[in-house]
Amino acid sequence: MEKKWNVAIDSLSRISVFSSPNNEPVTISGTSDDLKCIGVGTDAAVFQSLSVPEYAFKLYAEDKASKVKVEESIYHLLGQSPFFPTCFDAYDRCLVLSYEEGATFFDCLLQGIHIPKQAIKDVEDARKYVCEKGLNPRDIHLKNILLQNGRAKIIDVSEYIQPGNDYRWEHLKKAYDEYYHLIDGKSIPFWVLETVRKWYNQWNKYFSSYEEFTKFILKLFTFKK
Question: Quick check: is 1 in a domain?
């Protein structure tokens, strides 16, 4: 089979991605007229090629390159599913994935885009599907879920072989069920969301319980009513 995405590999070779301390987003060095960055995470950045826009290229940081084969194996175990992108190929530092349109849940909160209950159910169903495949659905958060025509698609599966429950999704779902109606349709300032993200990653240092943390966050969301 002809690998249409090969036309982008040379452009990707001009780009370097570097991890940052304290689990902050990666930094990017280098440029290419054929590529645009469409996402940045703590291990990798994702690019779309103007030559083959139907693909997304997840380029890992230099010191995270070993995760490429791991994530490729996870996609292989998941198989074809409406809940996840398709993985077409893997290179030393890069995964070739299907490009997925849609706003992340994070962007939905920024822009006041309604997140329907069906999308929440889709994530629940996706998690069950992952478990049925013998994997562990971890690291599901606002920036890893896309809203596509009212349905959800999860765009990062890299931690699904790690043990333990990080409770990120359980906490998100609880917040949606109990508080989302208070902010539905409202644009939330970026600084508020970033504050929530950073504090959530260490909430147990500042609050005696998760419930106390969520009550504090609710005040941040509603103080400008």
Answer: no
Shared domain for 108 and 184, answered yes or no, is: yes
CA distances from 63 to 91, 93, 125, 144, 156 (A): 15, 10, 33, 22, 18
**Domain assignment of residue 166, given as a range:** 103-222
C-alpha torsion sign, points 59, 152, 140, 115: positive
Under the banding of pLDDT at 50, 70 and 90, the label for residue 27 is very high
Q: Residue 162: its pLDDT value, please? A: 95
Residue 196 within any structural domain of the chain: yes
pLDDT digits (tens, 9 = 90+) for 54-82: 999 999 998 999 999 999 999 999 999 99
Report d(CA 122, CA 71) in Å as an integer: 22
